[in-house]
TrEMBL record:
Protein name: Amino acid permease
Organism, scientific name: Aspergillus ochraceoroseus
GO molecular function term, any single one: transmembrane transporter activity
Pfam families: AA_permease_2
Membrane-related topology note: Multi-pass membrane protein
Subcellular location: Membrane
This protein's UniProt keywords: Membrane, Transmembrane, Transmembrane helix, Transport
Bilayer-crossing regions: 21-43, 63-85, 92-111, 131-152, 173-194, 225-249, 270-290, 296-317, 338-360, 372-390
Length: 413
């Protein structure tokens, strides 16, 4: 938000940061709910694996979501001092679990051919165009690469954030991107019976792959639990990140009842009310799952589109400034001479992603498989503009810290 404030044209500067702030908060709240949903349904999948007679119900998944969210809430309030150690543990476990899972897959799984992995295309969504089918297949990958900017939300609690945060972002993409690419290749070479994997009763093809590989329910359970535990750790971190984002937006006057949610608790030394707001909102959204998993999925699909749009706003403004040769106040970390090319590529890829994330994954389109994320996002945008007209333009002045620094610079000049 502060970046958009410094890059946007003066006439639309405050409105732009208002819209970006709300879209970012909305996207990250959807991300919290989506991770909670994934962890809960993974637990359901393991129950189905171990007890085939179990008849899963949507309200079971909602109760599991509540349990996951309450655990994350407790960790963020009562164990906040060990969060850095917990994140260090999660980072180390990424590497350890990668090795633990890859070794049995490579040693025990049947082998796919290189042709299947690199050249064959499975179009099972009903689309006549393989190109469109391939683009829709990219959405799972792009979802996994959203949220890498979560460290930015914790920047006010980091020493020398101007140098440390960019380094963390690059290291995150480099390490996790490399591990994810290698793991994807391993899964494709070891996938076995594709039909069996895609139509597994557990709802998760990865569980079916593990079971095909080991032939053991217990071994499969242990292997999947390592991934689910990482999901727990990730959810704790995301709640911490989103609560700081929500608190910052409330501090700047963006939320309704901003003064209430901007308070830092004197006992726990955290934005307790913002943490409660994030967790309670996720619990409320989980109720949608009782009525319709499709409706909940529409909200969760907004994670990718909302976050990518929040990235595109400042990138587009920076690109515009670069093309117009306008001065930009860079920090100590820059992209150098490659900056403009990278910005243009980011805009093209971001527009590509936000376009296809709105497509239905299957045709013919029915009420069940319809992708409602587009109408929902449009409705949210209309509400945000209405909120700006009624409340925002008279109260919101943009990120306060940035305004204070800017005023101080003008005074020194």
């Amino acid at each position: 938000m502060a970046l958009a404030l410094s890059l946007a044209p003066p006439k639309i500067r405050v409105f732009t940061t208002w819209m970006q702030g709300w879209i970012t908060v909305f996207g990250w709240q959807a991300a919290v709910t989506s991770i909670c949903f994934l962890v809960a349904t993974q637990i359901q999948g393991l129950i189905i694996l171990n007890h085939p007679e179990y008849n899963p119900q949507r309200w079971h998944g909602t109760l599991l979501m509540w349990a996951v969210m309450l655990f994350s809430f407790s960790m963020n309030v009562f164990a906040v001092q060990i969060l850095p150690l917990l994140q260090l543990f999660g980072g180390l476990m990424h590497v350890v679990i990668f090795i633990v899972l890859v070794v049995p897959l490579v040693l025990l799984s049947p082998r796919s051919t290189a042709q299947f992995v690199f050249t064959d295309l499975l179009n099972q969504g009903g689309w006549s165009s393989d190109g469109v089918s391939w683009c829709l297949g990219m959405l799972t990958v792009t979802y996994c690469f959203t949220g890498f900017d979560g460290a930015i939300h914790m920047s006010e609690e980091v020493r020398n954030p101007a140098r440390v945060i960019p380094r963390i972002l690059i290291q995150t993409i480099a390490i996790n991107g490399t591990l994810a690419f290698v793991f994807t290749l391993v899964l494709l070479f070891c996938i076995g019976d594709v039909s069996n994997v895609l139509h597994t009763s557990t709802g998760f093809p990865i569980i079916a792959i593990f079971h095909q590989t080991t032939g053991s329910v217990r071994a499969t359970t242990v292997m999947q639990l390592t991934i689910t535990i990482l999901g727990f750790v990730s959810n704790i971190a995301v709640v911490a990140s989103v609560s700081r984002l929500t608190w910052a937006f409330a501090r700047d006057g963006g939320l309704p009842y901003s003064k209430f949610f901007a308070k830092v608790d004197g006992r726990y030394q955290i934005p307790f009310r913002a943490v409660c707001l994030v967790c309670f909102t996720a619990i409320l959204l989980s109720l949608i799952n009782i009525a319709s998993t499709t409706a909940l999925s529409a909200i969760l699909a907004l994670t990718t589109s909302s976050l990518f749009i929040s990235y595109l706003i400042p990138i587009f403004m920076m690109t515009w400034k670069r093309l117009r040769k306008e001065p930009i106040n860079f920090g100590p970390w820059t992209l150098g001479r490659w900056g403009l090319a990278i910005n243009i590529y980011a805009i093209v890829f971001g527009l590509f992603t936000t376009t296809f994330v709105l497509f239905p994954t299957e045709i013919p389109v029915t009420a069940t498989n319809m992708n409602y994320s587009g109408p929902v996002f449009l409705g949210v945008t209309i509400l945000l503009v209405f909120d700006w007209v009624v409340r925002g333009r008279g109260r919101y002045a943009g990120p306060l810290k940035e305004l204070i620094l800017h005023a101080g610079q003008q005074d020194r000049q």
